[in-house]
Amino acid sequence: MRVAVVGATGLVGRTIIKVLEERNFKVDEFIPVASERSKGMEVVFKGKAYKVITPAEAVALKPDIALFSAGGTTSLEWAPKFAEAGTTVIDNSSAWRMDKTKKLVVPEVNAHVLTASDKIIANPNCSTIQMVVALNPLHIKYHIKRIVVSTYQSVSGTGQKGVAQLMNERDGKAGDKAYPHSIDMNILPHIDVFLDNGYTKEEMKMVNETKKIMGTDTIQVTATTVRVPVTGGHSEAVNVEFAKDFTIDEVNKILSKSEGIILIDNPKNNEYPMPKDVEGKDEVFVGRIRRDESQANTLNMWVVADNLRKGAATNAVQIAEYLVAHKLLKENAVLSK
């Protein structure tokens, strides 16, 4: 099993490497990949140092799987070249998410759509991933009509530059800016660029990706995405209207038994999910579950996850695990010989 990590020196790339190690994913040949300027840098995988190579060099090695986290421009240029070499690409950027010919996958929700012919598989946006993991078991039971979501997203979602800006501002140091305003002691209702409809690109990602992952256009979604001065972990306040009524006990029972979800909902003891408690965890944490008293069949819930792990790296590795477990890499093995 030859596995390439494209963008191996970045924040998500390094997390992918860590997740591969922790989940003991079968890797016979590890191939760290980054841009020309990073060529020759060393990356450690399972205690061994590997020199970073360029995408062109990596394509020639015909890896079985390439986990991409190098930005949309790199993905658009290089993912097809890896795919042509027989590699199955799992891409973390937004480049392929809404391409009708590509699958957009959260394993707990829709891994069943994958086939051996899928050579470029899209990893959804971090904020979308954690929301659909939390909502899909309830959708199966009660059928979602509408979602209203407000996010509280950490600076690590912007990468190293976002974290550096927060830390520099906290320490009173000058430095490059990831955001148009200060982020320390502030919140920004602005993630990604603004579109003509007044929403940000991040907000529309949540709208469009949710429908694609859950396989329906009937679910209505509206989002407000906000950057907060937290270094890791995204939080979401989710208001969801169902076609069918529910009881809170039923909802709690469903969530507590669902794959990839940890229920923490004990407000009497001040117990609820917080970003500082989910760091390094692969699950989606849910709490503050309560009925919306202003509207029938409607629920409020609080959803938190580590955006670098389940929101990016872990989800990508889980897709790779599913491909291996269901022998969907057979074509790759033939092509790469």
What can you see in these coordinates?
- The protein is an alpha/beta fold.
- The protein has 2 domains: 118 residues, NAD(P)-binding Rossmann-like Domain (Rossmann fold), CATH 3.40.50.720; 180 residues, 2-Layer Sandwich (Dihydrodipicolinate Reductase, domain 2), CATH 3.30.360.
- The protein is built from 11 helices and 14 strands.
- It has a 6-stranded parallel β-sheet with strand order 2-1-5-6-8-7, sandwiched between helices.
- A hairpin with a 2-residue loop joins strand 3 and strand 4.
Largest sheet: 6 strands, parallel
Q: How many structural domains in the coordinates?
A: 2
Order of helices and strands: EHEEEHEHEEHEHEHHEEHEHEEHH
- Level-2 CATH architecture of the largest domain: 2-Layer Sandwich
Gross geometry = globular
Q: How much helix is in the residues?
A: 25-40%
CATH evolutionary superfamily of the largest domain: Dihydrodipicolinate Reductase, domain 2
Radius of gyration: 20 Å
Low-confidence parts lasting 5 or more residues at pLDDT below 50? 332-337
Can you tell me the CATH topology of the largest domain?
A: Dihydrodipicolinate Reductase, domain 2
Mean pLDDT, all residues:
96
CATH class of the largest domain: Alpha Beta
Query: What structural class should be given to the helix and strand makeup?
Result: alpha/beta
